[in-house]
Amino acid sequence: MTDNKPATDVTKDWQATQGQKSAATRLRLFAALSWIVAIGGQIAGVVLLYHHKFDHGNLPLLIGILVGIAIFAIAGNLLWKAANRHDPARASDKFRFFFQNQLGAIITLIAFLPLVILIFTDKNIDPQTKKVAGGVGAVLAVVATLIGVSYNPPSVEQYTQDMNSCATQIKAGQPTTACSPDVAAQAQEIATDSATVTAATKDAEHPAGRDVVYWIAPENGAKKSETPHVFHLCAGVSPQRGNGALRRCQNGLAPLMAETGPSPF
User: Fold this and answer.
1) CB atoms within 10 A of CB 117
2) Is 123 within 8 Å of 193 (Cβ atoms)?
3) CB within 8 Å of 28: residues ≥ 6 apart
4) Which of 122, 126, 115, 104 is nearest to 41 (CA)?
């Protein structure tokens, strides 16, 4: 049996909780609805332009449409950013990371540019209306787009680092300066599991216990086993992967996992 340690400790890789995923889904749904309304406002403005509604004025109506587009685009952008804080993408997945975090800016441009371009290029529109509405539309488009840009977006990698730092502080009894609300629950689970493992591994040779978890190495040095390796952590725990199983393990941990190597679960 090979004793190769994984390059990273995947037991401490941050994952969104079910509550965080649910919150992110709701926020993304509301963001999408806001963007749909913004794009719908643009479509209404384009239709009115083609029907020569602004050839002889109606500036307040056109300004109102542009402001409405901006309000719903900005609302969608803020909701989308909030969702990404609950369930961020991995920075290592560069395309998804960029697209997920800058989607608000992209949608905002889609919601504004066609209408603003039509305002400036329409030869029949009232000149004063074109000048004022075009300028207002351009400014609103820039502001809403800048609000949609994520300048320092969160990532799974960042949350993993913060979570592990937070867990270390909790275990050491230090001030939890690294414990943001996004990682605090997972960090507390790590600290709790660590205490459970330490208590379960106390013996004459190790009176303070050992904060050690084990893994079953794949056969023949492979990175992944062809068949799943499932084992009991202790008598009172059903076979399962993840840190959650450790919380119910009170004793008998070390003998059941001896000689298996550090765990990637």
Assistant:
1) 13
2) no
3) 79, 80, 83
4) 115
Q: Report how far residue 216's alpha carbon sits from residue 223's, in angstroms, rounded to the nearest whole number.
A: 11
Quick one: CA dihedral 180, 184, 185, 187, positive or negative?
positive
Question: What letter does residue 182 receive in the DSSP assignment?
Answer: T
Strand (E) or helix (H) holding 116: helix 94-121
- Measure the CA–CA gap between 187 and 164, rounded to whole angstroms: 6
pTM score, two decimals? 0.69
CB 265 within 8 A of CB 11: yes
102-116, 161-175, 193-207, 243-257 — most confident range: 102-116
pLDDT at 259: 36
**Contact at 8 Å (CB) between 150 and 88?**
no
Q: What radius of gyration, in Å, describes the C-alpha atoms of the chain?
A: 28
Matching residue, tokens 């084992």? 231
Query: Is-contact 188 244, C-beta < 8 A?
Result: no
Residues in contact with 143: Cβ distance below 8 Å, sequence separation at least 6, in sequence order: 70, 74
Distance CA 58, CA 122 (A): 15
**Of 8-22, 78-92, 202-216, 251-265, which gets the smallest average pLDDT?**
251-265
CB 29 within 8 A of CB 244: no
Residue 204: how many other CB atoms lie within 10 Å: 5
Question: Cα angle vertex 231, ends 198, 90, to 5°?
Answer: 75
Q: Which of 206, 199, 165 is nearest to 182 (CA)?
A: 165
Token reading at 212? 């050690």
